[in-house]
UniProtKB/TrEMBL annotation:
Entry annotated with the keyword Hydrolase: yes
Highest classification ranks of the organism: Bacteria, Pseudomonadati, Pseudomonadota, Betaproteobacteria, Neisseriales
CDD domains: nicotinamidase_related (cd01014)
GO molecular function: hydrolase activity
Protein name (Swiss-Prot/TrEMBL): Cysteine hydrolase
Length: 182
């Protein structure tokens, strides 16, 4: 008898210095509210909630232990939530993430967090290419204004790109919190 799919929620790089800025992430208050709504929904479904935290080099904004490096205090975290540390944009690159997901028998991911165009994008693509069923939480990721695109347009662009990626197996789904299913 096949094992039913097991989903987990992956919250990427929602760290104080990245979200609060300066400059602050696009749609900060909405982002935090939607992240917490996704966390609450995941918990009602007994899904694991994992937080990814970027570790920068000593002396950088995200140097481990610095105030900016801390996961944002407004996140609905629990002591039993797993935290995975990374040093590259892709949360799977040289981290314990895949092994942790394997131990939890996870084969489906809801992905949210910061930065839409860097760490979220890299992780979405990596997860999809590794065979995970990926759902991007469309209203629970953000970036910042970039030199050639504003933060709001960036979010919409990333949602469009992910919904149109060619991926093996199942396509990447892009759904708002209100439309999430396991």
């Amino acid at each position: 008898m096949p094992t039913p799919p097991r989903a987990a929620l992956l919250i990427i790089d929602v760290q104080q210095g990245l979200i609060a800025g300066p400059p602050p992430a696009t749609r900060v208050m909405s982002l935090l509210a939607q992240l917490n709504a996704a966390i609450a929904l995941a918990r009602t479904r007994a899904m694991p909630v994992l937080f990814v935290q970027h570790d920068g080099p000593a002396g950088s904004l995200l140097a481990p232990g610095s105030d900016a490096w801390q996961l944002h205090g407004a996140l609905a975290r629990e002591a039993t939530d797993t935290v995975v540390h990374k040093t590259a944009a892709d949360a799977f690159c040289r981290t314990a993430l895949k092994a942790t997901l394997d131990e939890m028998s996870v084969d489906s991911l809801w992905i949210a967090g910061y930065a839409s165009d860097f760490c979220v994008d890299s992780t979405v693509r990596s997860a999809a290419m590794q065979g995970y069923a990926v759902t991007v939480v469309a209203d629970a990721h953000a970036g910042k204004d970039r030199p050639h695109v504003g933060g709001d347009a960036l979010i919409e662009h990333c949602n469009w790109v992910w919904a149109n990626l060619d991926t093996p197996g199942a396509p990447v789904r892009v759904l708002p919190v209100a439309g999430l299913t396991a």
